[in-house]
Description:
This protein is 40% helix and 18% strand. The chain is of the alpha/beta class. The chain has a single domain, classed as TIM Barrel (Alpha-Beta Barrel). The longest helix has 20 residues, at 166-185. The two termini are 20 Å apart. The protein is built from 9 helices and 8 strands. Helix 4 (83-89) crosses helix 5. The mean pLDDT is 95. It has an 8-stranded parallel β-sheet with strand order 7-6-5-4-3-2-1-8. The chain has helices at residues 3-18, 36-44, 55-64, 83-89, 99-108, 138-146, 166-185, 201-206, 216-219; strands at 26-30, 49-52, 71-74, 92-96, 116-122, 151-158, 192-194, 211-214.
Amino acid sequence: MQGLENLSLRVRVACEKAGREPSEVTVLAVGKKHPAARIRGLYEQGQFDFGENQLQEARLKQLELADLDINWYFIGHLQSNKTLAVAEHFDWVQSVDRVKILNRLSAQRPRPLAPINICLQVNIDMEPQKSGLLPEQVFELAQLAVGLRGIQLRGLMAIPRVSNDPGEVNDSFRRVKVLYDELRNEGFILDTLSMGMSSDLESAIAHGSTMVRVGTDLFGPRPEK
Length: 225
């Protein structure tokens, strides 16, 4: 467990090596299986962005932490029967990969709320066991997203393949960045490239990531059931 201060130092050093400003990279704390008290502790240290994979677990934490001004991100695979709760209670969804999910989030986002921020999840290495759009499918869904009410397309999210070869990981990050830049060049107004976790955040930042998702290095090992 590194703690927020040490993780912030890692991000700062990675940004310096990449010739970037630390302010360009947001740390998203992933609280999966950790109690709400741990989230409260990090919030009190200045961490305001938190991601959750499981809706039921997230809703219990949100109720317990309702007094805090947290930015809540849904980052897990989203089933269509759970889009209503996500549309009502989250600020971001980083795992949009289907037209049906996009349409449901748009229709179910309460009108008094600001549009929900979304990232399209890209299966950059085309791994059959992973969710996400194939790279060639991204443009079409991005076009649909910008025409929907209640939706604000912010960028892309990707989880590259696990590999012991740093070159393969770097190549995956590079290809996500190329896709992101292609969308921007086509006129899409994007500012978020969510890629990189505890083990590879330096490489992700070097390849243009604007958001890294960190769990264990902030919270410690996940508790047993």
